[in-house]
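Subject: Sanity check before I submit

Could someone independently write out the structure tokens for this chain? I want to compare against mine line by line before I put it in a report. The sequence has 478 residues.
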Amino acid sequence: MEQHTSRIAYRTFEKTISAFEDLPPDVSLVLASLGADLTLLIDTSGNVIDVAYFDPAIERFGVEDWPGRSLADTVTRESVDKVRNLIDECVKKGASRSHQVNHPATRGADLPIEYVLRRVDGFPHMIAYGTDLRKFAEVQQQLIQAQFELEREYRRVRDSEARYRVIYQKMDSALLVVDGETRRIIDGNAAAGRILGVNLSKLVGDTLISQAEREHRERLTEALAESRALGQSRSVTVTSAANGGPIELQISPYRENGKINQLVSVSSPTADDDAFAGLSGDKWSWTEAVPEAQLVIDAKGAVYSVNGRFLDMIHVLGRNHAIGRNVNTWLGASSVDMQVLSNRLRDEGEVRQFLTVVRDEMGSSRPVRLSATRIDTGGEESLYSVIVTEQGAREMPNAVQSNGFHGATSDFSELIGRVPLKELIRESADVIEKLCIEAALTQTENNRAAAADLLGLSRQSLYLKLKRYGLEDFNGRS
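---
Independent answer below. Compare away.
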């Protein structure tokens, strides 16, 4: 349907019609081109009839050659569709929406122009009013450059923070950072968590006072208050509320962001009596003679011993940082890998050429082969010796995938033809079900009723499954 001029301009000049009656042609041309930085006359086929502009710099984009050419031929490839939209909208509605197109330059940046295409009743051609966006593009480029600089600076700060945090976590000295006013633990390293007998994730945010037995909390409170008030270091010995062992705290105040916080050094006079400390002594010294990376684990995956080659592989400073932790920390693309290995060891006593990955403390991973066998300890508890061998490029199987399950799938593939498919499926389903139960118990902090609701099971069903998978004593901690 034909559109009228009134649909293009909400209001036109009405009281000054006489001023436009006898305009010379050259004045009309000037008036037509004053409304934009770049004005084009376009015929209904989309060809440029004439060009008008005021900035001489626009000439270097070849605008003098545009008359006689299609407007679509004067823009960059990605702007062709926008030109077609301009013309279609103007033909149908009498005026188009604004569209930004780019005119190519022989050298340097393109010419960005925002066009509005209009037609007027009684005038045979369409008029394109263009706004020069080069200044906006320059400002935008400056903003982008500033954003890049901010991102580079942010990466430098983040890398520095990550580097110092790694150093902080790897220190043998156990340290806690305590808020001077609330006495809550702001930060801490893994060594402090081990001495206090509390998982580091639960330690941060809790008060330092609550880490001591009740009869020693008043003494610790006084030491913290005195150190903060006098600005001097204070030492106090208390009993850990978590493990009942004696711990010595060296409290040092420091100023941070306008407030006084405290750095607390934690040490244990009986650190050598740790339950796992004796296992890293002469009893397991033979592991150093093994020419490959080697570790000793129990049936639940707890590490009893490691040799120096395995510490080098995972970039851990000392044995005390590895002993007592679960092997899942470093071995396995997922916990399914170690679950499959554990089941094989329990059923067969030894496993050879088990494909999985090793993850070091720096966050990188690489493929390895595991060979494991049961150790005769003469007791009821079963221990297993695990040899870890890195795979070379030629050894890596072509079928290794990056979805996190290549270790498990490679291991199951060895059983095809030896074990019926139904048993393989049932075994994998059992592993997944056990992992889901452990995850639910961890999320609910060992609240069995909440875990049953989370899993969509009745409490009785959950208890039966806990018994089936030997999880009666699982405390929900990773």
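---
OP: Matches mine. For the report I'm noting this point. The mean pLDDT is 79.
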